[in-house]
Amino acid sequence: MKSSCRLTRPPILNGFIYPFVFLVAFMFLTVTSASIHLYQNHQYNTDLHVKKIVIDTLIQSGLAKFGNDMNQYQEPPESGETRYFFPDGEVIITYGRIAERTYFLQLSIVTKDGTRKKLNRRYKTDL
Q1: Residue 3 carries which DSSP code?
Q2: Which residue has the higher pLDDT, 41 or 102?
Q3: What percent of the chain has pLDDT over 70?
């Protein structure tokens, strides 16, 4: 009986393994590198958000303390400058009266890591 199965040589695959391994390694390194850069960007953005939150907290704390100080006076001063020290930084408020119990404030905020911010605001004290 004749065998219907023929033995054939496998095709020659010399040089096929290297390009395949190179492609897989390149894809792995690309994904890893992109992930590292994405992580660095997230860290940078997080630092910016934390600094913004600290500055906003200092602004609100300074305004609240200024309002409490101005409400203590029977006749508040026309203008002046006050400094408030907080654990996260320092708030310097330069103020001038615009109308009765209404002030124009210039806030200078300096955080403990050296970030500086200046802003102007109109502020009305309660009586």
Answers
A1: -
A2: 41
A3: 89
